[in-house]
Amino acid sequence: MEQLPLPRDRRQGALGVLNVLSDELICAILELLSPSDLGRLSCVSSVLYIFCNEEPLWMNLCLRLGGQVEYMGSWKRTILYREKLCTKLEELQREPLHFDGFSSLFLYRRWYRCFATLNGFSLDKGDMERINNAKLEELNCTIDEMKPVLLTEVAKAWPARSRWTMDQFLSNYGDVAFRISQRSSKKITMKFKDYISYMKSQHDEDPLYVFDDKFGENAPALLQDYSVPHLFEEDFFDVLDYDQRPPFRWLIIGPERSGASWHVDPGLTSAWNTLLCGRKRWALYPPGRVPVGVTVHVSEDDGDVNIESPSSLQWWLDIYPLLADHDKPLECTQLPGETIFVPSGWWHCVLNLETTIAVTQNFANASNFEFICLDMAPGHAHKGVSRAGLLAIRDVAHDHAKNNSKFETTLSHCPDMNKTHQEKRLKVSESVKEQHGNRYSWNSISALSDAHKQYNQDFSYDIDFLSAFLDKETDHYNSTFCVSNIIGERELRAWLHKLWVTKPAIRQLIWKGACLALNVEKWATCLLKICAHHNLPSPLSHEKFPVGTGSNPVFLVSGYVVKIFVEGGRGYSMHSLGTELEFKTILDKVKSPLMDHVPEIVASGFVVGDHSDFKIFAWDGREVPDMIANTIPMIGGNVSHGFPFGVWSKKKFQLENLGVNSFIRIWPYIVSRRCRGDILANVRDQLSENEAFHLASFLGEQLRHLHLLPLPNIQVNENHIDMGRTMQSDEVGCNNWSANAALMETGCKDFDTLQGWKLVMATLDRRKANVKKILAQWGDPIPAFLMDKVEEYLPHDVSVLFDVKKGDDGSYIYTRSPTWIHSDIMDDNIHMKQCCPSESADTHLGMNAIFEEKLWKWRSFG
């Protein structure tokens, strides 16, 4: 019998020099191209045609665009239709070409995942305890907060048990756009009717699923169909308004083969998940036990945690079968009506065995509160250890495996490890792979599992254990805040303070958490020393907690405001206090009407030392104590009104980025009397049009007084021009402030000669260079297209913003001088005693008092 010839291998001839690249790398490169380029490249050869028509490629391209998606039966058709690259319907429906002579194990495995059936995953081995209502009663309606469980009847009476079906969702919410699982940095939404169409026709290897934390806003009736199980009703985030709290509840709808890859819930929160329709397969590992195939990255810069994991389906198909029985996770199949509880720190991944509908919520309670606070503390070692155990500390793990010594011996060295011996990004539990088709080796996985167990035998998910990895020298107010934290830095401080005020019964617990997140004990000790030194009333229990969300610890003690300056480090904070004192002195000297609205300064100084020995030194800002001179770089030649740390010195300090090499701990402070009134944010909605007009008139008048204030004296380079010499104390009044005449009358050949203008120009140039970064930090309120154009609105030469005239001799004459303008007037910098609205109406709605505290935050040059 004649043997048929083997089909020719197309790969080498069709790819040319690209033949040296692996199929996986080629697919990754193609994702960088535009749809038009892919279309052109697909015409080059048969193999490139195959690569350029892979559905996962077009899916990723579409998701990269973000926005609302209307699925057209395939991802290639969807993006071509969306980008208007094909205008005729028949072009979108053309059948793909087929070629022989090319095979790819990488593409085949991906194709297999697209069409795999999950019937074999239905078996439940009974790993997880199932608890019904009767057993809950026996347990006094409590569960073990450190152990996952399945609750079988807590959702028995929910209307959602009968209402949450695919047909009813389609009927009631077909035109509602829901958020889709975040496969890209862009927000993706689909109308539910379009999502149903997608589910019925898709064959994706990692299908999209609805994962919407805003479903209560888009479909509020859904919130009436379920209630939080009574076991999980305690949630410390409920002290915040809805728009202030982090995302906490999600509607989850997904087809067969979709699911969530391995992760630990954000912020080490706990969660409950109730399934209303379909079946879900769960796999869980205890805290610190990183699943095989998962890599944890922890940034040394800000502690940001990034997890690389295969998709849920890929893990179940490729890795799970290779695990030894003792290495397999805790498993269960969740059935309709069942609620699973996932404790803080537990690793879990979920695979939908069929089309499912579920609702889930994350929460903070007494059991996980300290872990959540620890997770938001600055630093990186504790975050890595909380998720990856001792594998996150490579040196410790290596020493432990080598010497099998007691962990306590090495623990004392962990927080102070020399960072030069660490990678820039810690990488733990990276899977050992063979290079043949990206397949996992049984022997490699077993060896990795044994190493993991050996390294982590002393790991404990205990708050005392984990907190030992905190960097004890970390400054909680000046450290870089992790962008992936569940709430922002200011929001964290506001949340903890609100808990302190509204939940006095658990203050001991809140204090422990705040010590981890904010090092609040240190600042409270400083407060006690300050109060004792100046004979102020001793702080009451509720007054020992810092208020506000600003960059410095602020305390309200009786009728006083105590502010400790820590922002920017010692040098910057000393200049901040010096500027405050200098500003108050100028008001006194010129007898400005603003004096009626600025709180009285009771005391000022600085705290030196540590927890064991704090000492207080009074300081009015007029001289340079030896301790300060020896530890903080000084700005020579610019002594204004006897204030060496005044505004000019502060600006030069900022511009020259002067560092501080001393390790002496110094924190300046100021004590002022507390005013009466309320902040504008709290009364804005109560104001009538007439009241708002009077308020604007009042603030405009005070703003004029502020701009008329004389600037402090400075000496200008070799010219030694004293800006204050033209001002005599008896000439200064609220209607005749000409202290800055020297600037306006002095001509010079070089625009940068005058020190005052030089600082102004340098400050503006610096802020101009960072304007896009600053605006980006504000987030959604500023549209991206405006941010892209913002630099076009800024002049290339900022000098055009000032009135400068050129004389006949070529010198410049300045017709406008720098003035005092505001810097950070924000709610978190305003602390006053409340007064009722009726009382406020007789005095410009209490705005005198409001302005007193606002004015205290004004600075020179923004």
Automatic annotation (TrEMBL):
<dbReference type="InterPro" id="IPR001810">
    <property type="entry name" value="F-box_dom"/>
</dbReference>
<dbReference type="InterPro" id="IPR050910">
    <property type="entry name" value="JMJD6_ArgDemeth/LysHydrox"/>
</dbReference>
<protein>
    <recommendedName>
        <fullName>JmjC domain-containing protein</fullName>
    </recommendedName>
</protein>
<keyword id="KW-0408">Iron</keyword>
<dbReference type="GO" id="GO:0046872">
    <property type="term" value="F:metal ion binding"/>
</dbReference>
<feature type="domain" description="JmjC">
    <location>
        <begin position="217"/>
        <end position="380"/>
    </location>
</feature>
<dbReference type="Pfam" id="PF12937">
    <property type="entry name" value="F-box-like"/>
</dbReference>
<keyword id="KW-0539">Nucleus</keyword>
<dbReference type="Pfam" id="PF13621">
    <property type="entry name" value="Cupin_8"/>
</dbReference>
<dbReference type="GO" id="GO:0005634">
    <property type="term" value="C:nucleus"/>
</dbReference>
<keyword id="KW-0479">Metal-binding</keyword>
<dbReference type="InterPro" id="IPR036047">
    <property type="entry name" value="F-box-like_dom_sf"/>
</dbReference>
<dbReference type="InterPro" id="IPR003347">
    <property type="entry name" value="JmjC_dom"/>
</dbReference>
<dbReference type="GO" id="GO:0016491">
    <property type="term" value="F:oxidoreductase activity"/>
</dbReference>
<dbReference type="InterPro" id="IPR041667">
    <property type="entry name" value="Cupin_8"/>
</dbReference>
<dbReference type="GO" id="GO:0005737">
    <property type="term" value="C:cytoplasm"/>
</dbReference>
<keyword id="KW-0560">Oxidoreductase</keyword>
<comment type="similarity">
    <text>Belongs to the JARID1 histone demethylase family.</text>
</comment>
